[in-house]
Design a protein that fits this description.
By secondary structure, the protein is of the alpha+beta class. It has three domains: 116 residues, no CATH class; 99 residues, no CATH class; 73 residues, no CATH class. Helix content is 34%, strand content 12%. Strands 1-2 form a two-stranded antiparallel sheet. A two-stranded antiparallel ribbon has the order 3-6. Strand 4 and strand 5 form a beta hairpin. It starts with 10 loop residues before the first strand and ends with a helix. The protein binds zinc ion.
C-alpha cells in the first residue's frame, strides 16, 4: 500500500489518531517528536510516520475490502459488483478524526481506486445472521413455535456459506453470545427480588405468595412467557421490581405492595444484556469476525429483540 502512495513525510501522534487501535499502534511503534497535526511533542513514545499508520490500516482494510479490478466481473466496461469511494469506505469502517488535515491525508492514502467487498459473492456474517433471523422469527411466530428445530427450509442450498435455516439459528445465537462473552455467572446467595400488588386486606407472609402463579392463573402472555406457561421474573433490587410491577393507576386504590427477596441456591449462568461489549475499532487485532459478532449484538436483529427481552426503552 505504501509503495503506491506519495510519502507525505508527516508525523502523527496517538492523540490525533483518536481510534483506539490506531492509538495503540502509535504507542507501540512511536517516537518522541513533534506531531505535524496538533503541533505538540508528547512526552511518551507515541508519534509515528503517517505512512506507517496508513500501511497498518491498509492491512486491516484488505481483510474485507479491495479494488474491484481485482475481483469484480465486468460487463460493458462497468463493474458488476457495487463499489464505494474512500469516503464511504471510512464511513463503513467507522473511522473519523477531528483534524480536517489528518482526515484528508488519511483519505488520500485510500483514494487510488474505489472499493468493493472482498467476499462479495457471499453475505457478511452480520447480514447472514440478519436474514436468517427474519426467517427464524417468521417460523416461530407464524408456523411452529416449539418445534422449529425441524425447520430446515432456506433459500440457500446446504452447500452455500450463507445457509442458515431456522433449525440452526439457536446454535448460531449461542455462538455469538459466547464469543461476545455475554454469559455471566450468578454466585450462590445472589438476591433476586419480587413484588406483588394485592388487596389491602391481605397480608403476604410466605415465599409461596411471591413465586410464579399456578398454571391455571397464568392466563396472560408476558414478556417472555406465553399464556399458560408460568415463569419466574425477578429483579436485582426492590426498586426495579416495584417499577416493573406497580402501575401508577394502583395509587389511591387501597392496594398494598409487598416484596420478597429470594436467594439463589446454586450457581446460575445468565445471559447478561445489560453489559454489552463496546463496538471495537475496525483495526482491533481480534479481526473482522469479532467485529461482526459485536455489531450483530449492537445493531442486528438480536439487538432489536433485546429491547423486548430486557424491557429497555
Ligand atoms: Zn497530534
Amino acid at each position: 500500500m505504501s509503495d503506491q502512495q506519495p510519502r507525505s513525510g508527516k508525523y502523527v501522534c496517538a492523540s490525533c489518531l483518536e481510534d483506539e487501535a490506531l492509538r495503540t499502534f502509535a504507542h507501540e511503534h512511536g517516537d518522541t517528536r513533534q506531531c505535524d497535526y496538533c503541533g505538540k511533542t508528547p512526552t511518551t513514545l507515541s508519534v509515528v510516520p503517517l505512512e506507517d499508520v496508513t500501511e497498518f490500516m491498509g492491512k486491516a482494510i484488505a481483510e474485507e475490502w479491495c479494488d474491484p479490478a481485482e475481483t469484480s466481473p465486468v460487463d460493458g466496461g462497468e463493474y458488476l459488483v457495487k463499489s464505494i469511494d474512500n469516503e464511504e469506505l471510512f464511513f463503513r469502517i467507522g473511522l473519523e478524526v477531528s483534524s480536517d488535515e489528518l482526515m484528508e491525508d488519511l483519505l488520500a492514502a485510500f483514494a487510488d481506486h474505489d472499493w468493493c467487498e472482498v467476499n462479495w459473492q457471499i453475505l457478511s456474517p452480520s447480514r447472514r445472521w440478519g436474514s436468517a433471523w427474519e426467517r427464524f422469527e417468521h417460523v416461530i411466530k407464524h408456523e411452529r413455535r416449539y418445534i422449529f428445530w425441524y425447520s430446515d427450509e432456506d433459500d440457500e442450498s446446504e452447500a452455500s456459506p450463507d445457509h442458515l435455516p431456522p433449525s440452526q439459528m439457536l446454535d448460531e445465537i449461542q455462538a455469538v453470545i459466547n464469543m461476545a462473552k455475554m454469559v455471566k455467572e450468578l454466585h450462590v446467595g445472589t438476591a433476586i427480588c419480587r413484588v406483588r400488588v394485592h388487596e389491602g386486606s391481605k397480608t403476604l407472609t410466605y415465599a409461596d405468595d411471591f413465586t410464579p402463579p399456578p398454571v391455571n392463573c397464568a392466563t396472560q402472555p408476558n414478556r417472555m412467557s406465553p399464556a399458560g406457561v408460568p415463569m419466574f421474573y425477578g429483579a436485582a433490587d426492590f426498586h426495579t421490581a416495584f417499577e416493573e410491577v406497580v402501575d401508577p393507576t394502583d395509587k389511591g386504590t387501597g392496594k398494598l405492595v409487598s416484596g420478597c427477596q429470594f436467594a439463589t441456591l446454586t450457581r446460575l449462568n445468565v445471559l447478561d444484556l445489560t453489559t454489552i461489549p463496546a463496538m471495537p475499532s475496525y483495526f482491533a487485532p481480534e479481526g473482522p469476525f469479532n467485529r461482526h459478532v459485536i455489531r450483530e449484538v449492537h445493531e442486528g436483529s438480536l439487538a432489536a429483540d433485546q429491547e423486548r427481552w430486557t424491557g429497555a426503552h
